[in-house]
Amino acid sequence: MPFVEREDVGTTLRRKLTPHRRLQVWEKTGGHCVLCGRAIDAGRERWIAEHIRALELGGLDVMENIGPAHEACALDKTGEDHRRTAKAKRQKIRHIGAEGSQRPLPFGRTSRWKRKLSGQIVRR
Q1: Range of 61's domain?
Q2: Domain for residue 2, yes or no?
Q3: Domain count, the chain
Q4: Rounded-to-integer distance, Cα 117 and Cα 6, Å
Q5: DSSP labels, the chain
Q6: What is the pLDDT of residues 11-37, one digit of tens each?
Q7: Does residue 27 lie in a domain region?
Q8: Is residue 124 domain-resident?
Q9: pTM, full prediction
Q10: Is 74 within the bounds of a domain?
């Protein structure tokens, strides 16, 4: 089986959302939420230009990845994205062996204290 090189997906930088880009986002879907599909009443409801695939999960900051979303829908999606990102970071830290020991041995090499053969405990 050939070796497959895994690519690390980093966080994409976010560009400024100008009023012109915000209008393009709105017109792209005709004012429908990209998350729930319902129409957004812009006069009464707050809406957010939401990245469909989150930037922190490797999504790009391009118009094809941005759409209007109800504020409540966007907050739910953002919370889920943060949970998924945190899990991915924990898995990466565990995979590369960068995590510290959860249960260090008492009087081990990393401890400030040392136990002598006589049983006496002294500082290192």
Answers
A1: 19-113
A2: no
A3: 1
A4: 49
A5: ----PPPP--PPPPPP--HHHHHHHHHHHTSB-TTT-PBP-TTTS-EEEEESS-GGGT---SGGGEEEEEHHHHHHHHHHHHHHHHHHHHHHHHHHT-SPPSSPPTTSTTSSEEE-TTS-EEE-
A6: 677 888 899 999 999 999 999 999 999
A7: yes
A8: no
A9: 0.68
A10: yes
